[in-house]
C-alpha cells in the first residue's frame, strides 16, 4: 500500500554506505571512465585546460550540462547494480544510449522543477519574514515602543534573503526528491509516472530528503575541504592530485545519491521488507 511503510532514516543511510563499500569492483568498473571525464572537466573549468568555451554564464551552462550527462551515465549503471541484484548486474557497464538520454532529460526536468520551486519558496518565505517584521513593528507601536524596530533597512532585506534560503531549499528538495523516484525505475526500463512516484513516497518524503542529505553530507564536507586545498596550491605540482581527489569526491557523491534513491525505491515498492537489492531478473 502506498505510504504504508515508514522508512528508518539511519538504517537507510547505513545501508547506503554499506552497499557502496561492499561493491568495490562495481564501483571501479563503472566509475573509472567517468572519473577520467570528471578530472578533465575539472581541469578545463578551473582554467587549466583549453580556452573557455564562452562567457562566464555560457561556460557554467556547458559545465553543468556535461556534468549532468556524466552523472546520468553513472547513475543509470549504478541504479541497475543496486536494483538488479547479483545475477542481473554481471553484464552491467557504463553506456551512452537512449536509456541514458531519457534519464538525462528527466534529470534536467526535475532540476528545473527544483529551481522553480526554490525561487517560489524563497520569495514566499522572504515575504512572510517581512510580514512578520511589519506585524512586530505594529505590535511595538501599540505598546509605545515603535522606535525600537526600524523597517526598510537594506541589511534587513539581506538577512531575510539569506535566512529564507534554507527553508526554500528544504521545501523544493521535498517535492523534487519525491518525484525523483521515477529515475531508478527508468534506469531498469520500468514505467513509473510522476504521480506514481509521488504516491509511492507518501508519508516518507521528509525521510527521503533527510536520508539523502545525511548520505551526501560527509562526501560534501570532504569535497569542500579538498576544494579549499586545491585553490591554495594552484600552479604547483600538488594541484593535479588534488583535482583528481576532488573528481573522486564528485563521483562518490553521484554514487551515494544513486544508492540511497535506489534503496528507497526498493523499500517503498516492497513495504515491510528490509532495504536491499531486488532479486535477479
Structure explained in plain terms:
The structure is a single chain. This protein has one domain (9-269). The protein has nine helices and no strands. It has helices at 9-21, 24-45, 56-88, 98-142, 154-179, 182-187, 194-200, 205-232, 239-269.
Using DSSP, what is the number of strands?
0
Q: Which structural class should the secondary elements be placed in?
A: mainly alpha
Distance between the termini: 23 Å
Strand content: under 5%
Question: What is the count of helical runs?
Answer: 9
SSE ordering: HHHHHHHHH
Describe this protein with a few key phrases.
281 residues; mainly alpha; 9 helices; 0% strand; globular
Topology diagram in text:
Blueprint: H1 9-21, H2 24-45, H3 56-88, H4 98-142, H5 154-179, H6 182-187, H7 194-200, H8 205-232, H9 239-269
Helix pairs in contact: 1-8, 1-9, 2-3, 2-9, 3-4, 3-9, 4-5, 5-8, 8-9
Short synopsis of the structure:
By secondary structure, the protein is mainly α. Helix content is 75%, strand content 0%.
Amino acid at each position: 500500500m502506498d505510504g504504508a511503510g515508514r522508512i528508518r532514516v539511519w538504517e537507510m543511510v547505513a545501508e547506503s554506505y554499506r552497499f557502496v563499500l561492499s561493491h568495490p569492483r562495481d564501483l571501479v568498473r563503472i566509475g573509472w571512465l567517468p572519473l577520467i571525464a570528471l578530472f578533465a572537466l575539472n581541469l578545463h573549468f578551473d582554467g587549466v585546460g583549453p580556452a573557455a568555451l564562452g562567457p562566464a554564464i555560457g561556460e557554467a551552462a556547458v559545465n553543468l550540462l556535461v556534468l549532468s550527462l556524466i552523472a546520468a551515465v553513472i547513475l543509470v549503471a549504478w541504479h541497475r547494480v543496486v536494483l538488479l541484484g547479483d545475477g542481473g548486474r554481471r553484464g552491467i557497464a557504463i553506456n551512452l544510449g537512449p536509456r541514458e538520454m531519457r534519464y538525462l532529460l528527466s534529470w534536467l526536468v526535475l532540476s528545473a522543477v527544483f529551481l522553480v520551486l526554490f525561487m517560489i519558496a524563497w520569495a514566499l518565505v522572504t515575504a512572510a519574514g517581512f510580514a512578520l517584521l511589519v506585524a512586530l513593528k505594529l505590535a511595538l507601536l501599540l505598546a509605545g515602543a515603535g522606535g525600537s524596530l526600524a523597517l526598510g533597512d537594506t541589511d534587513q532585506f539581506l538577512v531575510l534573503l539569506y535566512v529564507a534560503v534554507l527553508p526554500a531549499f528544504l521545501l523544493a528538495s521535498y517535492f523534487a526528491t519525491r518525484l525523483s523516484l521515477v529515475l531508478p525505475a527508468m534506469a531498469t526500463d520500468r514505467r513509473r509516472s510522476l504521480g506514481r512516484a509521488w504516491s509511492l513516497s507518501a508519508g516518507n518524503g521528509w525521510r527521503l530528503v533527510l536520508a539523502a542529505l545525511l548520505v551526501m553530507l560527509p562526501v560534501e564536507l570532504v569535497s569542500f575541504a579538498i576544494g579549499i586545498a586545491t585553490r591554495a596550491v594552484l600552479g604547483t605540482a600538488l594541484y593535479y592530485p588534488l583535482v583528481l581527489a576532488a573528481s573522486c569526491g564528485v563521483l562518490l557523491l553521484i554514487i551515494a545519491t544513486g544508492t540511497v534513491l535506489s534503496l528507497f525505491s526498493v523499500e517503498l515498492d516492497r513495504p515491510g521488507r528490509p532495504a536491499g537489492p531486488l532479486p535477479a531478473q
